[in-house]
Amino acid sequence: MKRPTWILAPCLLAAALLAQPAFAANLVPPAGYFAPVVDADKKPRSCAAPPKPYTAKLEFRSKYEGSDKARATLNKASEKAFRDATADITELERGVNRQVMRYMREGDPQQLECALSWMGTWAQANALLSEEYNHTGKSIRKWALGSLSSSYLRLKFSESQPLAAYPRQAQLIEAWFEKLADHTVHDWSDLPLKKINNHSYWSAWSVMATAIATDRRDLFDWAVTQFRVGANQVDADGFLPNELKRSQRALAYHNYSLPPLAMIAAFAQANGVDLRPENQGALQRLGQKVLDGVNEQDAFARKTGEQQDMAELKKHTKFAWLAPYCTLYTCSADTEELKRKMGPFNTFRLGGDVSQLFDPQKPNGDS
Q1: Residue 363 preceded by cis peptide, ω within 30
Q2: Selecting from 1.10.8.100, 1.10.3720.10, 1.10.10.10, 1.50.10.100, what CATH number does the domain 31-358 have?
C-alpha cells in the first residue's frame, strides 16, 4: 500500500483550547485535537497482528463477585477470570492508543495504518455488538468505545488530515462506532436514579466522543443529558450519594466519576454548550470535594463510616480529569502544582495524551 506524505504544520494550534465557535454547524472537539502530526524522523516501528475480534456474548465475571451491596471488596479469583476473558479487548484499546499516539508524535505512517487495521478488523467482524450481556459486559462495551473513539478523534480532526487517504477504512470504523454508541445508549438509558453512578457517566463520555467523531447531534444531546443527570446528583456538599454507597472506596469512586464528567463538559463547551452552571456549579463542587478528600479523608469517613482505601488514588493517571478541569475553571496554585507533579497524564480510557491535548506545551511520554 502506498503511504502518503503529509504536509505538516510547524507548530500546534495557538488558539485557546475551548474557543470553538458557539453552535457550530458540525460538532467539534476541543482545540487540542486539531494538532498536526509531528515528523520526528524516527525509525519506523513494527505492527503486530490485531487481537482476535471479540464476537461472543458480553457476559463476564465481576471483580467484586461475592461482595456485599457496597461492591467494594475485591475478589482476586474473579478479577483474574475477568482479565483473562477480556484480554483481547484490553489489548485492542491499549494498542490502538499507543499506535495513534506514536503516529501523532513521530509521523510514522506504519503506526497510522496499524491503528486503522486493528480497528477495521474488529469493525468488519461486528465485534462487541452482542445483544446478550450482563452488567459487566455492557460496561466493557462502553469502556472500549470510549477508549477507541476518543483516540480516533486525534486522527479525525488533526489539521494534517491523516484520514484523507483512507476514506473506506474511516467509513467502516465510524459506522462500527455508531453501532456501539447506539447499543450504549440503549444499555444505559432510563435507569432509576438509585442505579445511576459512574458507569452512566463513562457511558456518556463514550457516546460524546463518538458523537464528535461521527457528527451525530442525537448522540451529543444524549451525552449532555446524562451529564446533567449526574450533575444533579451532586449534593450541596459535593458528594455523590450513589458513590458514597461504595463504603471504603467512596472517595476513589468519586474521583473515578470525574474524568468522564470533566471531558463531557469540555467537549460540550467546544460546541457552545456551557455545563459549568448545572446544579449551581456541581462539577466544580465535586472536583473540590475530591481534592479536599485526597488531603484529608475525614469527611468521607464520616459519611460512610469507613476509613478510605487510598490505594487507587496513588496512581497518578486517576487524576487525568485535572487536564480538562483546569481549562474549564481557574484552578488554585495548589491544584496546578498537583497537576504538574502528577502529569503529564496518559490514559487510554480518555484516548491517550490528555495533558498534550489540553496543554500542548506539556511534553508527552510513551506508553
Answers
A1: no
A2: 1.50.10.100
